[in-house]
From TrEMBL:
Protein name (Swiss-Prot/TrEMBL): Alpha/beta fold hydrolase
Molecular-function annotations in GO: monoacylglycerol lipase activity; short-chain carboxylesterase activity
Record-annotated active site: 140 (charge relay system), 267 (charge relay system), 296 (charge relay system)
Domain of life: Bacteria
Species the sequence originates in: Desulfomonile tiedjei
Domain AB hydrolase-1: 63-300
Protein family according to the UniProt entry: Belongs to the AB hydrolase superfamily. AB hydrolase 4 family.
Gene3D superfamilies attached to this UniProt entry: alpha/beta hydrolase, TolB, C-terminal domain
Pfam families to which the protein is assigned, alphabetical: Abhydrolase_1 (PF00561)
Keyword Hydrolase: yes
Bilayer-spanning residue ranges: none
This protein's record includes keyword Hydrolase: yes
The entry's keywords: Hydrolase
Length: 342
């Protein structure tokens, strides 16, 4: 059963269109009042990850991962961080490699299945901080990383992570890549490819003999990009090999900590393969909710606090606190365990 049969999320008037839900927050949502302190985390391959920490001196914290070509300053990241702080949680916003405003040192970048870097951050936080509870929250690409991490490391993750949540996740990467490359999603695809080209050009300045963007205009979709760049840079045979090995869906059955996955039925980037109903029905630790509307990392709500932190999803943490989690934030509730919908 942890498939939540009927979502109580209702899109605001005039925002039932999935593209409006996807685009409007990116263009118009402003989140103020978040102050970060940056810490640099060394990686085993002599590279680095920049994490931006907003602390209220709590014994509880959440590590938050952004989506493709995002960073810690995206509105959905700031909204989550602010809500965490407002409700007594420290927040650790991870900038994936090359996304912190400073190029990373190595030729490689980040990708949808890179749980190694997340584990590096988790290990760093446990070694440097003294948190009784540590949760993971991921959006889109970052959500796939979170789900893959808690699934593939199910035997050891219980000692490190209390709970996890993910939003708008293409847990079947091949299907998601096909969908975002479809005709209706051409504007999104062009935007992503433009942003990714800037990453490639940055790498060209650092490694001119190893990488170039010759004929980049011939790249039309993620299959083209991943075959040319992502796969060879990260040790995969090709795009299909990368998608197969990095998709989180194959690891969902092994998840053993309370984990919430929320993806809107009208998400323009997802196909039916990206909604793991069977996996959720078969795993008492995986809770799946599929609201009728919400777009991709949308789920807009015009709350009284004007920051969208009221939320609708609740995850109860290990006997110490209960939190309400949405793409717009987290609210502290009463002590108990296991996620449920309010």
């Amino acid at each position: 059963m942890p498939v939540i049969a009927e979502s109580k999320y209702r899109a605001p008037l005039f925002f039932s269109n999935p593209h409006a839900q996807t685009v409007f927050p990116t263009l118009f949502r402003k989140v103020r009042g978040v102050t970060y302190k940056r810490e640099r985390v060394d990686t085993p391959d002599k590279d680095f990850l920049d994490v931006d920490i907003s602390t209220v001196g709590s014994t509880r914290a959440a590590i938050v991962l952004h989506g493709l070509e995002g960073d810690s300053t995206r509105c959905y990241m700031l909204g989550m961080v602010k809500a965490l702080n407002n409700n007594g949680w420290d927040a650790i916003a991870v900038n994936l490699r090359g996304c912190s405003g400073e190029p990373n040192r190595t030729l490689r970048l980040y990708h949808s299945g890179d749980t190694g870097d997340l584990d590096t951050v988790v290990s760093y936080i446990h070694s440097q901080k003294d948190y009784s509870d540590l949760a993971l929250i991921g959006f889109s690409l970052g959500g796939n990383v979170v789900l893959k991490y808690v699934g593939e490391r199910a035997d050891t993750v219980k000692s490190a992570i209390t709970a996890a949540a993910a939003f708008s996740v293409p847990c079947d990467l091949a299907a998601g890549a096909t969908k975002i490359g479809s005709f209706m999603n051409i504007p999104y695809m062009k935007r992503f490819l433009t942003m990714l080209r800037e990453k490639i050009r940055t790498k060209m300045g650092l490694f001119p003999e190893l990488i170039n963007d010759n004929d980049y205009d011939q790249i039309r979709d993620f299959a083209d990009f991943d075959n040319r760049y992502t796969a060879p840079l990260h040790g995969f045979a090709n795009a299909e090999d990368y998608w197969k090995k990095s998709s989180s869906k194959q690891f969902l059955a092994r998840i053993s900590i309370p984990t919430l996955l929320v993806s809107a039925a009208d998400d323009p980037f997802l196909t039916p393969e990206c909604y793991p109903f069977k996996e959720a029905r078969d795993n008492p630790s995986l809770f799946l909710e599929v609201p009728k509307h919400g777009g991709h990392v949308g789920f807009m709500a015009f709350d009284s606090d004007r920051e969208g932190t009221k939320g609708i999803w609740i995850m109860r943490l290990n006997g110490t606190n209960q939190i309400r989690i949405t793409p717009n934030g987290i609210k502290a509730m009463n002590p108990r365990w296991s996620p449920f919908l309010k």
